[in-house]
Specification:
The structure holds two protein chains of two kinds. Chain A is 68% helix and 0% strand. By secondary structure, chain A is mainly α. Chain A has one domain. Chain B folds into five domains: 92 residues, Alpha-Beta Plaits (2-Layer Sandwich); 242 residues, no CATH class; 85 residues, Calcium-transporting ATPase, cytoplasmic transduction domain A; 149 residues, Rossmann fold (3-Layer(aba) Sandwich), CATH 3.40.50.1000; 108 residues, Calcium-transporting ATPase, cytoplasmic domain N, CATH 3.40.1110.10. Chain B is built from 26 helices and 28 strands. In chain B, helix 14 runs antiparallel to helix 15, helix 18 runs antiparallel to helix 19 and helix 25 runs antiparallel to helix 26. The longest helix of chain B is centred in the first third of the chain and has 35 residues. Chain B is elongated, with a radius of gyration of 33 Å. Chain B starts with 18 loop residues before the first strand and ends with a helix. The chains are: A mainly alpha, B alpha+beta. Chains A and B meet through helix 1 and helix 2 of A and helix 4, helix 6 and helix 7 of B.
């Protein structure tokens, strides 16, 4: 049953990574605005500048 | 019936200013200009994402509106980042309302090459713009946004939002840590609860125990520390609040569990502990979710311009931050600009609109040498003033500073009162059981003592309030009343006295109800009358001018005003007299409730215009309803020309007050409070600001909730004014729900205490009881407040 200890330590480390990811996301401000990212992803990139870039 | 033509840009009905261009309909030239600008820059996507997404502005932005941004000191304060020529600035744009707005504002670089990149925060209605200061100045950025009708509102009093952001981020970290520990701790503790758990190998038990202990340390020290700090601070102050029993519970849980784990006598309650803190923090988070785009703490700085044109000794104009104005400085105020401080008129034709301060939109002419008070708006040509006092010392701003000092609201919250007794009772019960077991079985004494403290930890109690109020706040917001924070709902429920402002609050600003009584005027006669009232500056004549619609534009040949009485004029050779009944020489039945203008053309009496201010929809019914349950006062900065009308509505004449200065309004509220009344002030303008701050609940009425409104506890959407009685009722229902939920959580506490005093509180019972009580109480209050909101608001619609 000693292997349980190793497993628990591994799972805990994995969970800590997720906690770290959460804290990182909060710090980066990903929870500041819950509306615009959802809308932004649907915008088409057909604006002038990007067109020129495509032509290159 | 033909459908009304809608503007392709903003969707409003095309009225008088209808413009057709290239076969497209626009409601006004402004909208057309924006449309063309966007088309020329390949930004047609704006109109494809949403229908008629545009913003209509009623008046074009004055040229010099953003001139103050040229002042380097002011601009520097606005930059979030400055390095070489690149700048970052964050602007508040209340007009943001749809995905098209986001799209356009994030494609600003299409309109100007100096802008690198921009990003919208929709929730806060803010745009962050990165630009190159070599190619575009911050003033040009602001003007560019104004040119597409997204006018940024700039004020220097922005620091507060920053502080809030930091706080809410910390709360999220705390929740994250507590949640992480809660989950893992439960997994580790599970074997204990299962049948056969006692056969677990000894080293595993120890290992699980130590893991639990290690995990719990950050929860207690980091996630739960605010409860400890708050409890400690309150003890020092000699106050008991809800955080004290929570802190005691947390500490008792932690101490008891650590002892059990280290002494290897048990498994401890670490999973319950982290669960408890996790739930509590979620409640706190729910309670703190406020309306980020609304601002409730504005002071005069938000109303005043940031800079003003100063005239230097060599007669050169320079923009100066208003905080730098000294006595003796000369300043120039242009049409539509606000006088920032008390100053003497030096030169120019001053027509001052003090509606900002008094609520009355009368133009007051001032002579050279007269003192002009801060808060007036110049209408007409530019004037020159000599500053008398620095801005912070002017009459208007000192009112603000005075109010700021006495913010402590007097109403004690229900939960504070209950928790005081609660703590006392628990500690007593704990001591009694300790003493009892000390005599019967000393080995159980300490355990039963901590058990009582653990079980009594008012988790459910502490959760019911945040969820009831948070949910209530959400429903109030859906219906048009936006509370600053949840605690104000409790204050709102305790209100027994309402003080109303009149102009702009109960009535619609700048709108009058006008009826004509007499022989109908021909369209020719109407245009004569209009020509006369156009010249007049009297309040009633201005209203008439707006009311009369004629095709012809005429100029009177002769025009003479007899102050306080009326005017005589000659238009197209016709002698026209307008004025009070007295002036014309007739007597009308005594009816002061309406102001009248009698019309006489060529010595022939034509009839009378009756002018009264337009009440908001449903105001009369609202007052009838409120009158039964509340003490209602009316305090108006306006004159008393409608006294009779309001007397009819409110009945109590001694509670009607007119011609009140902002200071008088404030002291009126203060007086009522000294009679131990809980006062809510309902007002709209800067003139009510002092009273709004002073009152227990200040409700500010706004036609556009995102526009500037004075500092207050709640913002009421103006068209929802008639629902005010239901809002008040709902706040009372919320508090009732909270009280009911208290009963439920006390029952849970009793069950827990039953085990605890016997010294039989096992980790399993704690692990079951605590989450169940919390979840059921939260479900009860959320469901109950939602149901009540549905019943109250939906049925009457």
């Amino acid at each position: 049953m000693k292997v349980l200890i190793v497993l628990i330590i591994f799972s805990m480390a994995l969970a800590l990574i997720f906690l770290g990811a959460f804290i990182w996301a909060v710090k980066r401000g990903q929870y500041d605005d819950s509306h615009s990212p959802a809308v932004r992803i649907l915008f088409d990139d057909e604006v002038k500048q990007t067109k020129e870039e495509k032509d290159k | 019936m033909r459908e009304a033509i809608k503007c392709i840009h903003c969707g409003s009905v095309c009225g008088e200013t209808h413009v057709v261009s290239n076969g497209l309909d626009f409601c006004c030239n402004g909208c057309k200009t924006v449309y063309e600008l966007l088309q020329n820059n390949q930004l047609y996507n704006y109109y494809e994402l949403e229908n008629e997404p545009g913003v209509r502005i009623k008046e074009p932005t004055p040229d010099g509106k953003f001139a103050f941004l040229d002042h380097p000191e002011i601009a520097d304060k606005l930059y979030r980042f400055k390095e070489g020529t690149s700048r970052k600035v964050e602007l508040y744009v209340p007009a943001i309302h749809c995905s098209s707005c986001i799209w356009l504002l994030e494609n600003l670089q299409q309109l100007h090459e100096g802008i690198h990149h921009s990003q919208v925060n929709f929730v806060q209605k803010r745009v962050t713009i990165f630009f190159d200061s070599e190619k575009i100045t911050i003033r040009q950025v602001a003007e560019l946004m104004a040119s597409i009708h997204y006018i940024p509102e700039i004020s220097l009093a922005d620091s507060e939002t920053e502080k809030n952001k930091k706080y809410s981020k910390r709360l999220l970290y705390q929740i994250g840590v507590a949640g992480f520990v809660f989950g893992n701790s439960m997994l580790i503790s599970l074997p204990e609860y299962l049948p056969g758990g006692e056969h677990l190998e000894e080293f595993l038990k120890e290992f699980f125990g130590m893991m639990n202990l290690l995990l719990a340390i950050p929860v207690v020290l980091y996630s739960g520390r605010d409860y400890m700090i708050s409890a400690y601070k309150n003890i020092v102050k000699g106050v008991v609040n809800i955080d004290l029993p929570i802190a005691i519970g947390i500490l008792a849980l932690f101490a008891q569990s650590s002892f059990e784990i280290i002494s290897k006598t048990g498994a401890g309650y670490m999973d319950s502990l982290s669960g408890l803190i996790f739930f509590l923090l979620i409640g706190k988070w729910y309670q703190n979710r406020t309306y980020q785009a609304l601002s409730f703490n504005r002071d005069y700085k938000s109303y005043f311009p940031i800079g003003v044109t100063q005239i230097k000794e060599n007669n050169e104009e320079e923009i100066t931050p208003i905080s730098d104005l000294k006595q003796g400085d000369r300043i120039r105020i242009r049409n539509g600009e606000l006088i920032p401080t008390d100053a003497v008129l030096v030169d120019g034709d001053a027509q001052i609109d003090y509606s900002f301060v008094t609520g009355e939109s009368n133009l007051i002419p001032k002579q050279v040498g007269e003192l002009l008070y801060a808060g007036g708006k110049q209408q007409g040509t530019a004037i020159e003033l000599m500053v008398e006092k620095p801005v912070i010392q002017s009459q208007l701003t000192s009112l603000w500073n005075k109010s700021n000092n006495d913010e402590g609201k007097s109403i004690q919250t229900v939960i504070d009162r209950i928790s005081r007794y609660f703590t006392l009772v628990i500690v007593t019960v704990a001591i009694i059981s300790f003493v009892y077991w000390w005599m019967v079985d000393p080995s159980k004494a300490l355990f039963s003592f901590t058990s009582v403290l653990i079980v009594a930890c008012p988790c459910a109690l502490a959760l019911s309030l945040p969820f009831a109020l948070g949910n209530g706040m959400r429903h109030l917001g859906e219906e048009g009343l936006f509370m600053k924070n949840t605690a104000d709902i409790e204050h709102l429920a305790a209100i027994n006295t309402l003080v109303f402002d009149k102009t702009g609050t109960l009535t619609i600003p700048n709108e009058q109800q006008i009826t004509f009584d007499g022989t109908d005027l021909s369209s020719e006669e109407k245009s004569w009358v209009k020509a006369v009232v156009q010249q007049s500056t009297h309040r009633l004549d201005i209203a008439l001018n707006r009311f009369l619609k004629t095709e012809e534009e005429l100029q009177p040949e002769k025009f003479e005003t007899i102050a306080g009485k009326g005017v005589t004029a000659v238009v197209n050779g016709n002698r026209i007299r307008l004025g009070s009944p007295n002036f014309i020489g007739i007597t009308l039945p005594e009816d002061l409730s309406r102001s009248t203008v009698v019309v006489e053309i060529n010595d022939q009496l034509k009839g009378t215009f009756h002018i009264s201010s337009q009440k908001r929809n449903g105001v009369e019914e609202l007052l009838q309803k409120l009158k039964k349950r509340f003490d209602i006062h009316l305090v108006s900065g306006d004159n008393n020309w409608e006294r009779e009308e309001w007397k009819r509505l409110l009945e109590k004449e001694e509670q009607l007050h007119f011609n009140q200065q902002p200071q008088e309004k404030r002291s009126y509220v203060e007086n009522l409070q000294q009679q131990h009344r809980n006062v809510a002030m309902v007002g709209d303008g800067l003139n009510d600001a002092g009273a709004l701050l002073k009152s227990d609940v200040g409700i500010s009425v706004a036609d556009n909730i995102y526009h500037f409104s004075p500092a207050c506890n709640a913002i009421l959407q103006a068209d929802k004014m008639s629902a005010l009685d239901r809002f008040l009722k709902y706040s009372k229902l919320i508090i009732k729900t909270v009280k009911r939920s208290y009963v439920i959580s006390f029952l849970y506490n009793l069950i827990g205490l039953f085990f605890a005093v016997q010294g039989a509180l096992s980790p399993v019972i704690a692990a079951i009881l605590m989450p169940i009580s919390s979840v059921s109480v939260v479900a009860f209050v959320s469901g109950s407040t939602t149901y009540q909101a549905k019943r109250l608001f939906k049925q009457k619609r």
